[in-house]
TrEMBL record:
This is ABC transporter ATP-binding protein. It comes from Chromohalobacter canadensis. One of its GO terms (molecular function) is ATP binding. Residues 11-242 form the ABC transporter domain. Keywords: Amino-acid transport, ATP-binding, Nucleotide-binding, Transport. It comes from the Bacteria. The keyword Oxidoreductase does not apply. InterPro entries: AAA+_ATPase (IPR003593), ABC_transporter-like_ATP-bd (IPR003439), ABC_transporter-like_CS (IPR017871), BCAA_Transport_ATP-bd_LivF (IPR052156), P-loop_NTPase (IPR027417). Belongs to the ABC transporter superfamily. The keyword Transport applies. SMART domains: AAA.
Length: 243
């Protein structure tokens, strides 16, 4: 492969050490996301998953280590430029604003990708999430948790991202709504968008993601494919309590 053909990772995070004040939370985390790839970030509560995402996105910059987004050092970007970098972020808590309708949420961030294409039009998002179409003029804060999560994912898609980052993708949702969100995650994957997903449902993550990073106390103790985890159930049992 020539240098010109070399594929640049969408995200290349190397040796991240992140602190909250004096509290050292990430201890040398490495994470690479290639175009079109789906990656799961695993670990029990408090192990550093959200902090890893927030370090990559620049909300809690690492004290040591480096993050490159599409080959460019993230220090050159600011968190509010995420959309321009092709990142659709679906945060824990969903980030839906009161006083703003579903339609306004879906049009306020909409933009073409950096190739000038807009495969995710408002119409396509509404086709994908018919519930949002039924609630189009409702205030975002009056939606159910599941509808808010769909709105948060739909809003990320209207930015025509190269990658989406879903923190606690189905947390707190009713089983039927969870199934709907997993279906959408499969659709996102099929459309070629890369993803980093944090969720508690390991079976679904093993099915949809080809790469997994398992964090224990801010350190990566597994980084690899689904087969490695399936072949060594003790890893999941010890570190995630999955029997
Ligand atoms: N704003 C903060 N200030 C201080 N410590 C924090 C802050 N946010 C997280 N922490 C601590 O950092 C560690 C990692 O938390 P983090 O939220 O990244 O874990 P997580 O794996 O995402 O867990 P969860 O699923 O509970 O969100 C925990 O010990 C947590 O208490």
């Amino acid at each position: 492969m020539t240098a010109q053909q070399q594929i640049i990772p969408l995200i290349d995070a190397c040796n991240l050490h992140t602190y909250y004040g004096e509290s050292h939370v990430l201890h040398g985390v490495d994470l690479t996301l290639m175009p079109g790839e789906t990656l799961s970030l695993l670990g029990r509560n408090g192990m550093g998953k959200t902090t890893t995402l927030r370090s990559i996105l620049g909300f809690v910059p690492p004290r040591y280590g480096e993050v490159r987004i599409k080959g460019v050092p993230a220090a050159k970007h600011r968190p509010w430029q995420l959309i321009r970098q092709g990142i659709g972020y679906v945060p824990e808590g969903r980030g839906i604003f009161p006083g703003i309708s579903v339609r306004e949420h879906l049009i306020m961030a909409a933009r073409p990708n950096d190739r000038g294409e807009s495969p995710w039009t408002l119409e396509r998002v509404l086709d994908t999430f018919p519930r949002l179409g039924q609630r189009i003029n409702h205030d975002g804060s009056f939606l159910s948790g599941g509808e808010q999560q769909m709105l948060s994912i739909g809003r990320a898609l209207t930015t025509n991202p190269d990658m989406v980052i879903l923190d606690e993708a189905t947390e707190g949702l009713a089983p039927l709504i969870r199934d709907e969100v997993w279906k959408i995650i499969h659709e996102i994957k099929a459309s070629g968008i890369a993803a980093i997903i944090v969720d508690k449902n390991i079976d679904n993550l093993l099915e949809v993601a080809e790469k997994h990073i398992l964090l224990v106390k801010g350190e990566v103790i597994y980084s690899g494919g689904s087969k490695g985890l399936k072949d060594d159930p003790a890893i999941l049992e010890t570190h995630l309590g999955v029997a």
